[in-house]
Design a protein that fits this description.
It contains 15 helices and 18 strands. The protein has 458 residues and is of the alpha+beta class. Helix 1 runs antiparallel to helix 3 and helix 9 packs antiparallel against helix 11. The radius of gyration is 23 Å and the shape is globular.
Length: 458
């Protein structure tokens, strides 16, 4: 390792190679590496990977460290590479409606750069202030607008990535349509840094909406909830951006002291839904939302409802969904993001809760919330200490139907879920994944041990 460190310092500069305490204080929790690299540009990343490839030294990329599956954890013999010095929005192209950013740019910074010219980065998530553009691409992040705009994959027009041996693959096209052979950018989107390190991204921008309207609704019964979604989708004619559902216990937790949220709607209902629309017309969009809510009320689907009349009220409603610190009020929790068909959700949640009660009795809690309309549920489960994690995993993932559901809707696989990947991918799919990994990273130096195991040749 000392010989490699010396070559790295000579190649990218001593100030870009941190060791000891200076390195470990920046790394993902649980990391044991003592070397952190801080490249300044794509050329530095290329030099680093070429040297590490030659030395057969594993490299783990680190972004904003907001991931929940330990995808950025570094082992003792691995080298961490952080994009802290690659935080430049290089171009905002108004004519072609796209933005080019280095991998270390926080998502919020990209959003703000687009907003300055009246455009919008369509992907949004609660960790926008710390999650990086490169990290959200590497994990194919979703967030709260997937229903309308899709996941990060749909927002990426092009990207630049560096392969394990230092080869730079530049696919930074600005074209929405490019059917010239394989679309290589998709190899790196969602690959969690195991096939190449994303260094630049070209994001597709959308017009900034003039109408932005939010409502909080209470619904009793899952059948009514599903029908309510249908009424909203039909009545809002493509302007429905978010349909965020909070189960009763989650809503109660977020609106009960010491939580800062207040109960905007009365407690006691089974589900609470955040509905948000974005459209080109300010006033008409609000009238469209009110009309759709009236239609749902006329069908007996709503128990209570409130419509935000100001930006502060909208933020107050969203804080109930996004400020998740109260979930840890009673101790450590295990967080899950699963994906399954809408008609399977009610039974799935009921069976998970029943199995948790059977295994842990009263010594557990389970709070459920999610995007729902795109099939994504989040479960936050407290069940004692870390020794219970395996049992809870088996309950959450074992209750899913194999290959018709996913153990990861948007957080990726990392270390925490790789033992359950087989539940969502067939043997043939896993075999193809290994072929791709072997072809692009023959020595297995990129984020080794994440997603799935792959033997690293000597």
């Amino acid at each position: 390792m000392e010989s490699l460190i010396a070559r790295l310092r000579q190649s990218i500069g001593p100030e870009s190679v941190l060791t000891g305490v200076d390195a470990t204080r920046r790394m993902a929790p649980g990391s044991r590496s003592s070397v952190l690299l801080l490249p300044r540009d794509t050329e530095d990343v290329s030099r680093v990977l070429a040297l590490c490839h030659q030395a057969r030294r594993p490299v783990v990329a680190q972004g904003g460290l907001t991931g929940l599956v330990h995808g950025a954890v570094c082992g003792v013999d691995e080298v961490a590479l952080a994009f802290d010095r690659m935080r430049r929005v290089e171009e905002v192209d108004v004519l072609n409606r796209c933005l080019t950013a280095q991998a270390g740019v926080p998502l919020q910074a990209a959003q703000e750069a687009a907003e300055e010219v009246g455009l919008m980065v369509p992907v949004d998530l609660g960790a926008r202030g710390s999650a990086t553009v490169g990290g959200t691409v590497a994990t194919n992040a979703g967030g709260t607008r997937v229903l309308r705009f899709g996941m990060m994959r749909e927002a990426v027009l092009g990207l630049e990535a560096v392969l394990a041996d230092g080869t730079v693959v530049d696919s930074r096209g600005k074209m929405l349509k490019n059917n010239a052979g394989y679309d290589l950018k998709h190899l790196f989107i969602g690959s969690e840094g195991t096939l190449g390190l994303v260094t630049r991204v070209v994001l597709r921008l959308r017009p900034m909406p003039r109408g932005h309207h939010t409502a909080l609704v209470a619904v009793d019964g899952f059948e009514r909830l599903a029908r309510f979604l249908g009424v909203m989708e039909a009545g809002l004619q493509g302007e429905l951006t978010s349909f965020e559902v909070m189960w009763r216990s989650f809503y109660d937790l977020m609106t009960t002291p010491p939580s800062r949220g207040r109960p905007i709607l009365p407690a006691g209902c089974e589900y609470y839904v955040l509905v948000e629309t974005m459209g080109p017309r300010a006033e008409e969009g609000g009238e469209t939302l009110l009309s759709a809510l009236a239609q749902a009320e006329s069908q007996g689907l709503l128990a209570h409802s409130a419509v935000a009349t100001s930006a502060s009220q909208r933020r107050e409603m969203w804080s109930l969904r996004e400020e998740l610190d109260p979930l840890k009020r009673t101790g450590p929790v295990f967080s899950y993001d699963v994906s399954l068909p809408l008609d399977a959700m009610e039974d799935y949640v009921a069976r998970v809760k029943a199995r948790l009660a059977e295994r842990f009795g009263a010594a557990h809690h389970c709070h459920v919330f999610g995007h729902l309309a795109d099939g994504n549920l989040h479960l936050s489960i407290g069940a004692g200490g870390s020794d219970a994690h395996g049992d809870v995993d088996d309950i959450v993932y074992g209750t899913l139907e194999r290959q018709t559901s996913s153990v990861s809707a948007e957080h990726g696989i990392g270390l925490l879920k790789k033992g359950h990947l087989w539940r969502s991918r067939s043997e043939a799919e896993l075999a193809v994944m290994r072929v791709l990994k072997q072809a692009l990273d023959p020595h297995g130096i990129l984020n080794p041990g994440k997603v799935f195991e792959l033997h690293r040749p000597e």
